[in-house]
Design goal:
Blueprint: H1 3-29, E1 34-36, E2 38-40, E3 44-65, E4 70-75, E5 82-83, E6 88-92, H2 95-131, H3 136-168, E7 171-173, E8 178-180, E9 190-191, E10 197-211, H4 215-218, E11 228-232, E12 238-246, E13 259-263, E14 274-291, E15 296-297, E16 303-309, E17 312-324, E18 327-332, E19 339-341, E20 352-356
Parallel strand pairs: 1-20
Antiparallel strand pairs: 2-19, 3-10, 3-14, 4-6, 4-9, 5-8, 6-7, 8-10, 10-13, 11-12, 11-14, 12-13, 14-18, 15-16, 16-17, 17-18, 17-20
Helix pairs in contact: 2-3
């Protein structure tokens, strides 16, 4: 075949192949509408919540101090453990107090003997005064001696009781049930009665949470102890709580307002734990909730969503207030019955043809 004819045939073949490829490519560009999932919004009154960090504290902390002075001999508890009322926590060297008690007991015995003698002498005087064997003056002297002996005996008994009590106080016991903290003293330390702080016991049956929302977050809301509050622990478990203190002024240094919530039930939260606090600051009227993932922020700072309408994704401008859990509160731009698209956000364009996912139909 002449070269010219070979060139013509090759050109015709290449043109045919190219045409076939274009037809195949055209067929591939024809695709079905993407499937979208939607939620139907409803206008309603929605509570406004703010979320912030709080710290737990024990509402009842008991300072542990000794009732007597002396040298600390033993510590009888494990730091951070639970203790019961009456448990021995510390032992102060009892030797001086045992000696004092022995001395008081000996004095009581001596005075008891004096009282016995004075009583017998007075009994004899009563017999002798009737017969005139002794003078009235002697009788009165014996009577006074008996009264003095009784008083001395009562004082000796009181001293013995005090010495016994002081000895018992060398064993410092837990006054209440609770969780005991770190010991602030070590064996060998000199303990001063009523002044040396040994440790603390916290009662966990009444834990409270302190938190301080900013004045900006409160946005001028009126907060009283009637406002709803919720506590979430580290695992996200919701714990019912009640506001029991609301400061009546803003701290000018931090621009925050101190508040406190009391837990309504026993939990694993202990003083010092950090928790998440949710405080209800009001109610938004005629608003709708939409998932945060459905909302996009435009370059000019406004917000929009895509709604499903007549088989198309239509971009709709909205106004939002704040988050409540996983949702935005939308105040304008949507009405009851609108279908907000919740997926395929990266693929959506205004006017794009879409279809409802089967799970929405």
């Amino acid at each position: 075949m002449p070269p010219f004819l070979r060139l013509v045939c090759a050109s015709v073949t290449a043109l045919a192949l190219l045409t076939g490829c274009k037809e195949t490519a055209s067929k591939k560009t024809i695709s079905t509408p993407i499937a979208v999932q939607t939620i139907q919004v409803t206008e309603n009154d929605h509570p406004l919540w703010i979320s912030l960090l709080g710290q737990a504290e024990g509402s009842r902390e008991v300072d542990i101090k000794a009732q007597v002075s002396g040298s600390l001999k033993h510590i009888r508890f494990t730091e951070g453990s639970a203790v019961k009322a009456g448990d021995i926590l510390y032992e102060i060297d009892p030797a001086p107090f045992e000696a004092q008690l022995n001395l008081a007991r000996a004095n009581t015995q001596s005075v008891r003997a004096e009282l016995s003698n004075a009583s017998k002498t007075f009994e004899r005087s009563k017999q002798l005064i009737r017969t005139g064997a002794i003078s009235q003056q002697s009788y009165d002297a014996d009577k006074r001696a008996l009264e003095v002996a009784k008083a001395k005996y009562q004082a000796a008994q009181a001293s013995e009781r005090d010495a016994s009590i002081d000895l018992s106080w060398t064993k410092v016991r837990a006054p209440v049930d609770g969780q005991i903290e770190k010991s602030l003293v070590n064996p060998g330390a000199l303990i001063n009665a009523q002044s040396t702080l040994l440790t603390k016991i916290t009662q966990h049956d009444d834990v409270r949470v302190n938190f301080a929302p900013s004045s900006r977050a409160l946005a001028g809301a009126t907060i009283t102890t009637n406002n709803a509050v919720r506590i979430l622990d580290e695992q996200g478990h919701l714990i019912p709580a009640t506001l029991d203190f609301v400061a009546q002024s803003i701290n000018p240094q931090t621009s925050t307002r101190t508040m406190r919530a009391r837990l309504d039930q026993a939990t694993g939260i202990i003083p010092g734990d950090f928790v998440r606090v949710q405080l209800m600051i009001g109610t938004r009227k005629n608003a709708v909730l939409i998932p945060q993932k459905s909302v996009r922020q435009l370059p000019d700072g406004t917000y929009s969503v895509f709604v499903f309408k007549d088989g198309q994704a239509i971009q709709q401008l909205i106004k939002v207030d704040r988050w409540t859990g996983p949702d935005w509160i939308a105040t304008e731009g949507l009405k009851t019955g609108d279908l907000v698209i919740t997926n395929q956000q990266l693929k959506l364009r205004n006017g794009l043809t879409v279809r409802l996912d089967k799970q929405d139909s």
